[in-house]
């Protein structure tokens, strides 16, 4: 039977309406997708602006570091050591902080020999003790085997072949703190910040503020700066029996920073042989940390740099960017 004109007209109308609905749905989909892509692009643009702002804040802090007019003395009251905050006209807030590596005991020191009467291993053991970790002999021995260049020791490659994820220790310096957690005996809780305790407590030190992994190849231990190092770091260099001398050094540097080691060694000659080659009054390696934030988003920069002791020129050793 032939289809009547009215039926054909009704079918055409239905198809036309369906096409309109589909077209409208497609338009809405494309509009929503365009809006999503636009928001994603705007978010990516904001992240890029924050990344560049954090990098710029770090660069400006390094300019101040390079412009230091006395490279023979570094102390905590210098311009480069002061926190820097900038509120920009575009709403981005930046923070930057420079720290000298000389205030820390470098974990990588344990892999090289120095001129001091005390080994880097003994210094690290004492520091762990002053930070309330009294059972550290095994982890420190394992760390020494992890970073030294030889294959002899109780915690070399064969030791690490027995676990669930066997690997070979690198026998080189560590480049990041995360590598410490691969060393036998090192656990995350070792690096948890300690709650405030009485400063007259001899074992009140905090590893998170007393140590650092400095990514710099070494021929001898990286020196500690007597003008910036904490009590527990200085005590680690000298040993428990020199507590009085360390307290005197801390008191004297509050009056004015030490311009040379002669001032210390003249007053405390027993420290001269003990500290030879392990301390100085200035630093050559520094860490800069910068952060840029706006509208709930933030980016950060962490960089290790080396400053030429004669010219002040800055060389980047490591540059790490991330969200924060």
Structural key phrases:
324 residues, alpha/beta, Pantoate--beta-alanine Ligase, Chain: A,domain 2, Ribonucleotide Reductase Protein R1, domain 1, five-stranded antiparallel sheet, two-stranded parallel ribbon, 8 helices, 16% strand, elongated
Strand order of the main beta sheet, please? 1-2-7-8-9
CATH architecture of the largest domain: Orthogonal Bundle
For this structure, the CATH topology of the largest domain is Ribonucleotide Reductase Protein R1, domain 1
Provide mean pLDDT, rounded.
87
Name the shape in a single word. elongated
CATH class of the largest domain: Mainly Alpha
Walkthrough of the structure:
- It is elongated and about 115 Å long.
- The strands form three sheets. A five-stranded antiparallel sheet has the order 1-2-7-8-9, with helices on one face. The protein has a two-stranded parallel ribbon with strand order 3-4. Strands 5-6 form a two-stranded parallel ribbon.
- The protein has two domains: 42-102 and 284-323, Pantoate--beta-alanine Ligase, Chain: A,domain 2 (2-Layer Sandwich), CATH 3.30.1300; 104-280, Orthogonal Bundle (Ribonucleotide Reductase Protein R1, domain 1), CATH 1.10.40.
- It has eight helices and nine strands.
- Helix 2 packs across helix 5 (231-238) and helix 5 crosses helix 6 (243-255).
- Strand 8 and strand 9 form a beta hairpin.
- The longest helix has 62 residues, at 5-66.
- It is α/β, with parallel strands linked by helices and 324 residues long.
- The mean pLDDT is 87.
Short summary:
By secondary structure, the protein is α/β, with parallel strands linked by helices.
């Amino acid at each position: 039977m032939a289809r009547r004109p009215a039926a054909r007209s009704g079918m055409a109308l239905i198809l036309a309406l369906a096409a309109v609905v589909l077209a409208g749905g497609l338009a809405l989909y494309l509009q929503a997708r365009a809006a999503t892509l636009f928001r994603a692009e705007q978010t990516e643009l904001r992240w890029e602006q924050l990344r560049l702002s954090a990098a710029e804040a770090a660069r400006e802090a390094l300019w101040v570091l390079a412009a230091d007019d006395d490279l023979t003395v570094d102390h905590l009251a210098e311009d480069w050591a002061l926190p820097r905050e900038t509120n920009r006209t575009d709403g981005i807030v930046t923070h930057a902080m420079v720290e000298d590596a000389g205030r820390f005991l470098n974990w990588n020191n344990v892999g090289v020999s120095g001129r001091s009467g005390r080994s880097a291993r003994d210094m690290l053991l004492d520091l762990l003790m002053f930070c309330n970790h009294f059972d550290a002999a095994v982890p420190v021995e394992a760390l020494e085997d992890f970073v030294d260049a030889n294959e002899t020791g109780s915690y070399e490659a064969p030791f690490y072949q027995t676990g669930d994820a066997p690997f070979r220790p690198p026998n080189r310096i560590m480049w990041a703190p995360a590598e410490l957690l691969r060393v036998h005996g090192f656990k995350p809780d070792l690096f948890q910040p300690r709650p405030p305790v009485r400063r007259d407590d001899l074992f009140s030190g905090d590893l998170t503020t007393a140590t650092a992994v400095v990514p710099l190849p070494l021929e001898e231990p990286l020196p500690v700066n007597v003008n910036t190092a904490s009590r527990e770091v200085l005590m680690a260099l000298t040993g428990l029996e020199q507590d009085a001398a360390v307290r005197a050094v801390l008191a004297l540097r509050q009056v004015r920073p030490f311009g040379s080691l002669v001032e210390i060694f003249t007053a405390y000659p027993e420290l001269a042989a003990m500290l030879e080659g392990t301390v100085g009054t200035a630093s050559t390696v520094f860490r800069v940390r910068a952060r840029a934030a706006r509208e709930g988003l933030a980016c950060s920069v962490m960089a290790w740099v080396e400053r030429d002791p004669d010219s002040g020129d800055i060389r980047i050793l490591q540059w790490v960017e991330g969200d924060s």
